[in-house]
Design goal:
Layout lengths: L8 E8 L9 E8 L4 E5 L6 H8 L7 E6 L2 E2 L5 H6 L1 E4 L8 E2 H6 L7 H10 L3 H5 L8 E2 L8 H15 L3 E5 L7 H15 L3 E5 L3 H4 L4 E6 L2 E7 L4
Parallel strand pairs: 3-10, 3-11, 6-9, 9-10
Antiparallel strand pairs: 1-2, 1-4, 4-5, 7-8, 11-12
Helix pairs in contact: 6-7
The structure holds adenosine-5'-triphosphate and magnesium ion.
Length: about 230
C-alpha cells in the first residue's frame, strides 16, 4: 500500500521503447522528486512527456531501469491501490452524456452534492459553476461536445480533487483556451498542487512557473533538471 502521506518519486536510469523494432522513446532518464514537491515537465512534441507519465502510472513497464516510489520499485506495489493513489488529468478527458454531477462523480453515489460544491469552491471555480445553466443537473453531451476543452479540464480537475491522490499528474492539453478559463485553470492547478507530489506537463511556461523543479526532455533524454528559477 501507498499509505504514506508524502511520496517521493525517483526515475533511476529508465529506458523505454513501445515496440522492439521502434526507437527508444525514453533514454536513460534519471531524476528525483522529493515528497510533496512539484515538477514542471517541458519538451517538444514527441519528446516523451506523456510516455513518462504512462510509465509512472504503470500502463507500461520500462525495459531498463526502475521507477522508485519512496525508495521501493513501483512494480512491487499492488497495482490497484498503487493507481488509486495517482490522479491523472490527461490530454484526452473522457466525458459522457449525462449530468454534470455524474460526469464529476463517475457514478460514485456516496459523493454528496454538498461535497461536490465544496470542491468546486476550494478549486476557485464558483463563477464557472454559476454559469452552468442547471447547476449539477446541467446536461453534458456525449464526449463533452457542448463544452470547451478548458471546461472539460475543469471537470477533470474536480474529479481528481475528489479522489485526493498523493501523486498528481497533469498532462496539459494543447487546445486553445480563452484567457478567463486559463486563469481559472491556473488557480485550480495551484490548489490541486498543494501537499502532493506533482508532475505538471506543460506546453506553456506560465503553468510551470510555480513549480519547485523543471525537467526538460529532448528526444527522450533529460536535457535539464533543476530548481525552477535556476534554469
Ligand atoms: P506531445 O507534446 O505532443 O504530447 P509527448 O512529449 O507527450 O508529445 P509522447 O506521446 O510521449 O510525446 O510520444 C513520444 C514518442 O513515442 C513519439 O515518437 C510517439 O510517436 C511515440 N508513441 C507514443 N505513444 C505510442 C504508442 N502507444 N505506441 C507506439 N509509439 C508511441
Ligand atoms: Mg503528450
Amino acid at each position: 500500500h501507498l499509505m504514506d502521506p508524502a511520496i517521493s518519486i525517483q526515475f533511476d536510469h529508465v529506458s523505454f521503447r513501445y515496440d522492439d523494432d521502434q526507437h527508444q522513446v525514453l533514454r536513460n532518464v534519471s531524476f528525483q522528486i522529493p515528497a510533496n514537491k512539484t515538477v514542471g515537465l517541458l519538451g517538444k512534441t514527441g519528446s516523451g512527456k506523456s510516455t513518462l507519465a504512462r510509465l509512472l502510472f504503470r500502463m507500461c513497464d520500462p525495459q531498463e531501469g526502475a521507477i522508485r516510489i519512496n525508495g521501493t520499485d513501483s512494480r512491487e506495489y499492488a497495482l490497484d491501490s498503487f493507481r488509486a493513489s495517482i490522479g491523472i488529468v490527461s490530454q484526452s478527458i473522457e466525458l459522457f452524456a449525462g449530468s454534470l454531477r455524474d460526469n464529476i462523480t463517475m457514478y460514485k453515489d456516496h459523493i454528496t452534492d454538498e461535497q461536490i460544491v465544496q470542491i468546486i469552491d476550494r478549486l476557485g471555480l464558483c463563477d464557472w459553476f454559476r454559469s452552468m445553466a442547471d447547476g449539477l443537473d446541467t446536461r453534458i453531451e456525449r464526449d463533452g461536445s457542448n463544452l470547451s476543452g478548458g471546461e472539460a479540464q475543469l471537470i477533470a480537475f474536480t474529479r481528481v480533487f475528489l479522489c485526493n491522490p498523493r501523486i498528481l499528474i497533469l498532462d496539459e492539453a494543447t487546445s486553445r483556451i480563452d484567457p478567463i478559463t486559463e486563469r481559472r485553470i491556473e488557480k485550480a492547478i495551484a490548489v490541486l498542487m498543494k501537499n502532493r507530489t506533482c508532475i505538471i506537463i506543460a506546453h506553456r511556461l506560465s503553468t510551470v512557473r510555480n513549480t519547485d523543479y523543471t525537467l526538460v526532455l529532448q528526444e527522450g533524454s533529460v536535457l535539464e533538471f533543476d530548481e525552477t528559477g535556476c534554469l
